[in-house]
Amino acid sequence: MSILSLVVLFFLWWLGNRTWYLVETRLVKVEWLEEGKVSRTITTAGWLIKEEQLLPSPGRGQLRLLVGDGQRVRAGGAVAEILLADNGAGGEKVVVHAPRGGVFCSHIDGLEKVLRPGNALEMEAVEKLGAEPASPGTGSRVEKGEPVGKLVDNLSGMWYWCRVPREEAGSGKWSPGQPVVVLWQGRPIRARLEKITGEEMLFLLSVYPGDLVHQRQVQLELLAGEVAGFVVPLRAVVERGGQPGVYIISRRRATWVPVQILGRTPGRVVISGRGLSARTRYVTNPLWVREGDKLE
């Protein structure tokens, strides 16, 4: 190998190290660990049970809705009309009236007569039945007796049935009548625990977002207290072999240490780990860090 080649290789080596040094010093961000708290949540999946009444069509024909999906109607108000067919009526129309006040909903799933408040039916049987969604709309052909929609009594609240992990259900922290906060799509809803049997829980949601009227199977998060530890950005956590950890600065070197994740919020996690303290510095953006890198 010629001297010129050696010089070029040395220059490239020096340039690479210099570039990496600039990356480390300019791009790598180091912060002190800070103590904090976040809410601990339990993710559940379950079924909504509502006071709802199907509105059957009085005849066979073409449907025309007179109210919008999610619109509240008064008792006796017209919600739809049917242009009768095949009965010699010559284009006669019949009107579907609301038997009581409530929120009109065109989302029908076939469980309206099964999932009712106070129904003793086992929820496992309901899960096996499953939902059969249908949404009749203007222009649809309906048969006599076929529902054109339903009314949901939003003033009486709704119930949420779900299962929780066995270790949570048996923790002794839950009791009937207990007020609870649940989250749906990040929105808090005040609820009350009505019943707990084994891993099954039934909650009453007295007030809830209007768009829940159209839902049946949902995922809600139960707020189950707070957890305390060191709060770091989610991006600071690096997994090795399935074990979460963070890079801390030890003797001016980047050192990966395992941690336990105690809780999380969008973009942040609460961690604990052996040897961590408020005097520990850690790397907030470990994308640019390698084990043993020198960091000030």
Would you give an account of this structure?
The strands form 5 sheets. This protein has a 6-stranded antiparallel beta barrel. The chain has a 4-stranded antiparallel β-sheet with strand order 3-10-8-5, with no helix packed on it. By secondary structure, it is mostly beta strands. Strand 16 and strand 17 (243-250) form a beta hairpin. The chain contains 3 helices and 21 strands. Among the domains are: 41-48 and 157-225, Elongation Factor Tu (Ef-tu), domain 3; 52-153, RNA polymerase II/Efflux pump adaptor protein, barrel-sandwich hybrid domain (OB fold (Dihydrolipoamide Acetyltransferase, E2P)), CATH 2.40.50.100. The model has no long low-confidence stretch (mean pLDDT 84). The two termini are 38 Å apart.
What does this entry show, briefly?
The protein has 296 residues and is mainly beta. It has helices spanning 3-27, 123-129, 166-169, and strands at residues 30-32, 35-50, 52-56, 61-65, 72-73, 78-84, 93-97, 102-105, 141-142, 147-152, 158-163, 179-184, 187-197, 200-205, 217-233, 238-240, 243-250, 253-258, 260-265, 268-272, 281-283. Among the domains are: 41-48 and 157-225, Elongation Factor Tu (Ef-tu), domain 3 (Beta Barrel), CATH 2.40.30; 52-153, OB fold (Dihydrolipoamide Acetyltransferase, E2P) (Beta Barrel), CATH 2.40.50.
Query: How confident is the prediction overall: mean pLDDT?
Result: 84
Write the H/E string, N to C: HEEEEEEEEHEEEHEEEEEEEEEE
Structural class estimated from helices and strands: mainly beta
If classified by CATH, what would the architecture of the domain at 52-153 be? Beta Barrel
**What's the Cα radius of gyration?**
30 Å
Please report the number of helical segments: 3
CATH class of the domain at 52-153: Mainly Beta
The coarse silhouette is elongated
